[in-house]
Every structure is written in C-alpha cells, then in structure tokens.
Write the structure tokens for this entry.
Amino acid sequence: MKIAIIGGGSLGLLFSYYLGFQNEVCIYTRTKEQADEITKNGLHLIKDGIALQPLKIAAAGIQDWRGKEQVTIVAVKQYQLSGLMEELKANVEDSILFLQNGYSHIEMISEIQAQNIFVGSVEHGAVRVNAYTVQHNGSGVTRTAVFRGESHLLRELAKNAPADFPVLLEPDYNEMLIKKLVVNAVINPLTSVLQVRNGELVDNPFYFEIFKQLFLECALVLGLDQEEVYLQNLITVCKKTEYNHSSMYKDMENGRPTEIDAILGYLLELSKNKKMKAPLIHNYYHCIKGKEQEREGG
C-alpha cells in the first residue's frame, strides 16, 4: 500500500517503522530539518533495550504532502490537529485515519470531505528519542473503526501490518473511542499529578481508591451502561503497562503541552452540558492546567 504518515513524534515514527517494511510509506514532518535527518539516517527503533535494523524511508516536510496516497495516517497530538485542518481539507482525496486521544477531535474531522474517514485507538507505548529514533516501550494493538465511508482499505491496512504490530478492525468507532477515553481520563492525569508509573495506580491501595472514584465519576458523566467491563479494561491496561510512564507524564516531564483539554476538558464540558457535578474531573483538569502554566512561568 501507499501510505502517508503525518507527524514526526513518537507515534508517527513508530507507525512509519513498522508499516514501512511491507508498504510504500512516506512520513511528513512539521520541519524539513527532521525530514532531512530521517532521509540521512533512516528510521531507528529500540525495543526491549535492543536497537533493531534501521529502515530507509521517504520523508518530507508537511508542506509537500498532497494527499495522493491510498491512506493518510494522522499521528499528531490532538492539540496540533486544528493547525493541520486546512491542509487536510484541501488535499486528502481517498482515505484518512486519525490516531488522536480523547474525543473532541470527532467534531473537527467530520468537516473533512474524504471518501473514507477512519479513527484509531493506539495501545502501544512509545517515546521519541531523537528526530529519527523511537523507543517502543510497550507492545499492544491498534484498534481502528470506520467513522464515515467503507472499510475495505482498513482491512487492507490490517493485512499489510506486520504480525508484531497488529491492526484490528472494530465495529463501532464510538464505543472504541469511549473505552480509550476512559483509560486516558484516569491513568494520564493521575500518573502525572502523583508522579508514578501506571502500575502504581492499582498496586498502591491508597492511589487505587482515587483511581476507582475518578473512574466512577467519568462513567457517570459518560452514562456508561457496563461500568464493570470498563473498569476491568482500565485495570488490565494498568497492569499490562505497569512499568510505563503515561504519555501525559512524559509530556509534562519534557516540557511539552499535554492533551488534557481533549481528555478531561472534554468530560468537564460534557458534565456542564448535562448539569452534573464532577469535582474530581474538575480538580485534576485544573491540576494539570496549573502545572502547565507554572512551567510556562505563570
């Protein structure tokens, strides 16, 4: 398949590396400098402390993307998406897959006139080491679903993904994204504020009490029917990634903006629209926003 990947962060590098062995992939980065580094050095991946075989891959600045590939994968952070919307609307022709956290991007992507629009939920852990190197910290799956259009290209993408980087097709995009939203809404802010790895949220009985209460508040705001199913999924994710730091923790640590607005910000807005009190969502949202402001010097 011909695949465009937009974004030179951890997910963009990770997807480019794994999909690049069996497909014709071009990664489009925010800066031409990063694209030049990838062209010069190839893509490097570190897994389980071992540097794997580098991969030579096409790379270009985002300004060179024209949407001619069969599938374009948008792997930027949720807060970066709005800055790309005009280019996405103008150029994408065939199919586009969005890999953002949260739920607030759904309204944005509905404005795009692409033939097929897909959304995804990534369960891998990854950290960008430098412009052309990514560290794969935790293997998982990529769940995808049709937002609008037909699924045949998603099926082809799944077929062309390597066995150790599976792409799955889910029947309901809403259920898939809500399940991921719950995971992000509990694990990300708690690990960031408490400064702990994911596993400590369930291993430490005092943190686990906060964990359960924040989950119950999220479930109430979202109107979840099968609370126990979502809670067990949340605990499973924590245990599977017990030694990992969450993406929000790493963003805070490295001085990057977080996706708190797309995650707890979305839930906070939803609670206001439903005229529901959500004190934990409110407090943890403002804790993260306060940390971001403090880091920016007030």
The mean pLDDT is 94.
